[in-house]
Amino acid sequence: MASTAAPVAGRRTQSVLTDLRDELLEEIFLRLPTPAELARACTARASFRRIITERSFLRSYRKRHPPPLLGFVDDEVGCGFHPAQAPHPSAPLARALADAADFTYSFVPKHGEGHVWVPCDARDGRVLLEDGQIWEAFRHLAVCDPLFRRYALLPPVPWNLALQEKGTVRTKYLLMPVAEGEDETLFKVICLANYNTKLVAFLFSSVTGEWCIAATISWSSLGSQMWQHFRGCEYRGVSCFDCARGSYYSASTFNDKLLVLDTRKMEFCTVDDRTGYHINLRCLPGQHEDVLDIYVPSRCRPGQSRSLPRIVVGREGALEMFSLVGDHTPNGSFHLYHTSQQNNGQSSKEWQLENIIPLPGKYDYFTVGAAEGFLFLGATTEDQLDIVEGDPMSLLTTEWNVDYFALDVKTSELTKVCRRRRQFFHKEDVHCYFGFPRSLSKPSI
Description:
This is F-box domain-containing protein. The chain is of the alpha+beta class. The protein contains ten helices and 23 strands.
């Protein structure tokens, strides 16, 4: 009996020691400061890789270390990916991603001759593609991982769901973030459909492989002014959403409300945008309502003549908004006005001024987006060619160097990310690409 029990006890002891060793290694790996160092540890030994590639470990690591900004995915055909450039701290990792990944999406099957996949969103290392050659409102979609060259094809919203009413419908597609505790191999896509009388959110889940109606609301219940804004200014309305704490926010400089889609409750609502300090904000340069949306100043630059405010992840229990204030005259100054609204359940929620952040001179700025606690700005330098009013042909042929900046909301530190060349009339729509090296995780699609 004793001789039989001894080997069993030995195996149990060895198992306990192995578990303790794995726990200690996991604690060590969680303290590695960058994904690059984690990648090197992953390649050192098979036992290290086994621990690091566990989903539970990756979730813990992401909680402790926010995913690095690697660059921007461009929705302009053929422009692909713009990696972060030195001296940005993510430059080496971004360059490695650009060299290894396929941001032409050649591995995703096409629907026919002349078909082109166009990025319409990016999140968690994935890119959402839409059929750029089909002019119907409800398009074919694909979710892909450019590094592993994996993809999932999505059908368009079926007509038995999509046919809500007669008339033109405008759509916007969004890739939902992976919620805490969710299986990272799964994904969800939202289609926002803007009808004449209502706004509908269709939801696709990779679990069911089908679309469903997740939320709907009439424009009349939101207010006629909001309806007119979103119908008349599609590129300034439904196409501009920032995601913060499980909700999508669409801000407008022409409206007194923020449109919100709460993905946890799957319902639409609004937030007052004309209370407290925001009343004063409307009187500052570039915020005047008598400046038409289609107005083109004499000193034209790529981007928007009036930049949208952006919602970012801020303090717990508060909405954080950044509004770009400045002018487009030679050597004009620009500032970011940081305001917040406490979400404390009270009926009266006043916007408070938190900070005014001056931006470096000799630039003409516009807002690009917000994600993961960062605000993104585009800018052109003052020494580039001025376009004289009345010379529209110059606008068709001129290209600018556009510098992209990221503002860390917690520290107010502004960092240059990269530079790209673009023309004036190309709509400014780049998508921030955050993520760990996808080779560290199991295939997500």
